[in-house]
Amino acid sequence: MESSAEACSPPLPGLTGTLPESGGSLPANAAIFFDGYSISLDAVSVTVGGEPASLVAVTDLPSLGYSLVARIDPPPGEGQAIVIEGDFCRAAEPCGPTRIELTAGAADADAPAGPSGVSFDVHDHADFKSSGGDCQVDSDLSWWVTVEGEIAGSGEAPVITTIEAFLDDTFTDPVMSQSRLMNAAALTVALSRTTDVLDGAAAPEAFCFRATAIDAAGNAAGEAVHACKPCYYRKDPETAQPGLGAPPEPAWTEGDIYPGGTCDSGMGAGGGGAGGAGTGAGGSGGDGAGGSGGDGAGGSGGDGETAESGCSFRAPGGSGGAGTTGIAALALLACAALAGRRKR
């Protein structure tokens, strides 16, 4: 049987993939993501239309778990051929040349649509303790955060969604964040942590989650959505035994519906939204503390963000009147539909 140390041994150095893949295309101003172990761009060159160019490291985008992120400088023109080749391994451990061929599309200067909704579930499960050699970490609780939004269209830069958890509903005390490629209309991210992240708060309402979007060309959406109460919450009995890691998402039942949360049919109106989408990236990696900066929610006369017991929506501002009321009513109906979908 394979030992835990062998199971957790590092992979061999080398490039394992890129976004986009070789043979694909990308907007001229979009970043390229390189995945692998112990890789570098030091011995890698790039040409655009046969002419030398440079790969410049990107620091203003989440890395999505990729090892390296870079843009081409100067940016290629639409239709130009891009060739990236060389040895991605470090000089001490060469692994041979790799060739990547791409085609530049038109530059993407338009911000993506912001997320349309966010909701989350909480599972206070049996405490899992890592053995130290099993490639896992300790875990006492798990959150499943679902973001709804739009994927990139043809010729557009990929959309990156960042989920941030805050200890407060003013979004000034960040705890953790994770960024993922928005490759479906609904994206669910699992976050497992130990109880110390709760800072003494009760697990169901310890965090407010905020979702923002930016694309691989660096265009940030101007809107954010948030939720501060869960749809489902389950606490396992003290006698529950841990498994071989953080458990998978439970099969939620009606008994797990959290009072006053997204899926509670008797929910009341929640408070107004606070904290708009940040104008910068939500971090350069996967897990970690997210930034809290950005534009605030709109005031009376701007576009604001509103939360309905954990279900977020936006209604145009203004001086009020029947038009605004009607839009708000439609938004509430949309939230009810989202809650219905969450009752699976």
Q: Which bin fits the share of residues in helices?
A: under 10%
Morphology: globular
- Reading the helices and strands in chain order gives HEEEEEEEEEEEEEEEEEEH
As laid out across the biggest beta sheet, the strand order is: 1-3-6-5-4-7-8-2
Secondary structure: number of strands: 18
Major sheet characteristics: 8 strands, mixed
Could you list the spans in which at least 5 consecutive residues all have pLDDT below 50? 1-6, 268-344
Task: Please state the structural category.
Answer: mainly beta
End-to-end CA span: 39 Å
Topology (elements, then pairings):
Blueprint: H1 4-7, E1 14-19, E2 25-27, E3 32-37, E4 44-48, E5 51-57, E6 68-73, E7 81-86, E8 98-105, E9 117-128, E10 139-148, E11 159-166, E12 174-181, E13 186-193, E14 208-215, E15 225-227, E16 233-235, E17 304-308, E18 311-315, H2 322-342
Task: Write structural notes for this entry.
The chain has 344 residues and is mainly β. It folds into 2 domains: 11-105, Immunoglobulin-like (Sandwich), CATH 2.60.40.1220; 117-258 and 277-293, no CATH class. It contains 2 helices and 18 strands. The chain has helices at residues 4-7, 322-342; strands spanning 14-19, 25-27, 32-37, 44-48, 51-57, 68-73, 81-86, 98-105, 117-128, 139-148, 159-166, 174-181, 186-193, 208-215, 225-227, 233-235, 304-308, 311-315. The strands form 4 sheets. An 8-stranded mixed beta sheet has the order 1-3-6-5-4-7-8-2, with no helix packed on it. A 4-stranded mixed beta sheet has the order 13-10-9-16. A 4-stranded antiparallel beta sheet has the order 12-11-14-15, with no helix packed on it. The longest helix has 21 residues, at 322-342. It is globular, with a radius of gyration of 22 Å. Mean pLDDT is 81; it is low at 1-6 and 268-344. Residues 286-304 have a biased composition (Gly residues). Keywords: Membrane, Transmembrane, Transmembrane helix. Residues 1-20, 286-322 are annotated as: Disordered. The chain crosses the membrane at residues 321-340.
